[in-house]
Amino acid sequence: MAELVAARLRRMIVRGELTEGEALPSETALMEEFAVSRPTLREAFRVLESESLISVRRGARGGARVQVPEGTVAARYAGVVLEYRGTTLKDVYDARTVIEAPCAGLLAERRTDEDLERLRAAVAEAERLMDDPSAFIRAHMEFHALVVELAGNQTLTVLNGMVRNIIDQANWSHVDLDAGSPENVRANRRGFRAHVALVDLVAARRGEAAEELWRLHLQEAEDYLLQNRSMTTVLDLLG
């Protein structure tokens, strides 16, 4: 019964019948609505809380409030699964290429003027931060996420978020190791040039060329980031 109650409330959340931040009805009202006991209702709450669909505050002023589904929840769990399976970082980088490269092509074919403005603004922001390794790598990672977002495929966006959670941490670890070194500066400038070139191809609506350029850029980034031999698996990075 707890699973059935959780399923009903879950559907109401994902359909927007219950909105973010909205308080659920009182336990008494829900027990009456679903014809269940208090322990059963609280078990349903625990299920939804574990899925980050509600937050429960205990005490006199407590209660359950709705949280919208976020990709970060899936990303964290995916990281645990990949750790358990002994997945290599190369495996994750290869998956990123499978997701991102076609998205670059889709973006070039489908882009709007607003998409192009957002890409150009992101490139300009990264250029402004070129001399600050930490800020630059953050802008660099956000550009990659933007390419997938603007491609317009929600499934690929969610899958990319799961992979990106790991890639971003690998990037931060690399920044800690060699930020500001000649090799790091060269890699950053090479990556920046690839971003500028992609925006030009997107502007020209050259889908195949955009996909091929992005595939090459991702491979170069993978080769650079995997130079740290002390971290070869997801467990090495996240564990």
UniProtKB/TrEMBL annotation:
All copies of the HTH gntR-type domain together span: 1-69
Q: Which superkingdom does the taxonomy of this entry point to?
A: Bacteria
SUPFAM superfamilies to which the protein is assigned, alphabetical: GntR ligand-binding domain-like (SSF48008), Winged helix' DNA-binding domain (SSF46785)
Q: Where is the signal peptide?
A: none
Bilayer-crossing regions? none
What are the record keywords, sorted?
A: DNA-binding, Transcription, Transcription regulation
Q: What is this protein called?
A: FadR/GntR family transcriptional regulator
Q: Which organism is it from?
A: Streptomyces xiangluensis
